[in-house]
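Before any further analysis, backbone shapes were mapped to integers, which produced the following:

***
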Amino acid sequence: MARPRTPPYAAKAVDVEIAQVHSPEGLAAFVQFPLQLYAADANYVPPILVERREFLDSKRNPFFEHAHVAFFVARRGGRMVGRIAAGMDERYNRFHKTNTGFVGLFECIHEVGVAAGLFERAGAWIRAHGAVEMLGPLSMAFHHECGLLVHGFEHPHSMYTPYNPPYYEQLFEANHFCKVKDLLSYEFSAEQGFPQKARQAAQKARQSKGICLRRLKLEQLETEKDSIKSIYDSMLKPGFGQLPLTQAEFDYAMHRLKPLVMARPELCFMVEADGEPVAFALSMPDAQNALRAAGGYLSRFGLPWGLLKILWSVHKLERIRVFLFGIRPGFRRRGLDALLAEETVEAAKKQGYRLGELGWIAEDDALLGRTVQFLGANLIKTFRVFSRPV
């Protein structure tokens, strides 16, 4: 089969050098670049740099057991002006029967030519690894941060969701990326309470024979993790962005979330049917405002200033994030979603939280979209995934 003809792309900036990262020092510069780029952006929340370096470490993140990733930086006169990652995920391509590469971790100054050079270099790497298209932006996978923020810039930057300046959409479109799908994020208000119709559905589920809602058992967390993964895997099918996590990836993700689960276990629930786990909802404090105070560093000059600022700011948090939510097939349309949502909203209100964010939900998932709106949530953000041939 002939490779699709590549259209002419935007001209790259001739005074910019694109280089692949090969050293720990280069990776450190790659990780730190957003702090420079967003220095004047009050909405941006810097990630903790040591956590980002661990996340991108092929020896520590199990994602790299089945994926290959290359990191590239753009420099003009020795000054960094952009970065991008290119990846090939073997498990994703086998699961979806595709031949796709990924681009992500994209950051760039407001110049189409600089972005053109980054996309060209990433595309060449992906093409050399046998793919025919590149999809993104992703922070390497769909279970990481994914998509480009194109709507909802006025809302806070929530944990584990992308953030970027509005001009990034122009950089992608000027470089001939086309929309593949929008991913939607919703917000609910604990102060407004729970819609009456949804409350009735929750009450009906609560009274159903054999149905029991309980909090997550922290003393049996390993068993609870197995139940959550079993329910999560049962929901997956070869749909957009879907891919079963390996056990190592799931354990790694839960390890990263564990401190937040332990901080507010009141926000995590499991539903059992005749003693068997069939649904769950894991919500956690949205610690972005606390992380903002650290400025990306847990310690500076040998002192834990960043950590102390985080601890000082934790009590001021007003938002939660619904990170994981699932119902085993065969138990849908029985009000379990309403039951879990009602308990989450009531628990958030008791803990003093005002708002919560959940997502993402694919734009064409009409059933889930109607469900979250029935539960009282409102659309607040849109993240867009693009593709182009390589």
Observations:
- The two ends are 15 Å apart (CA to CA).
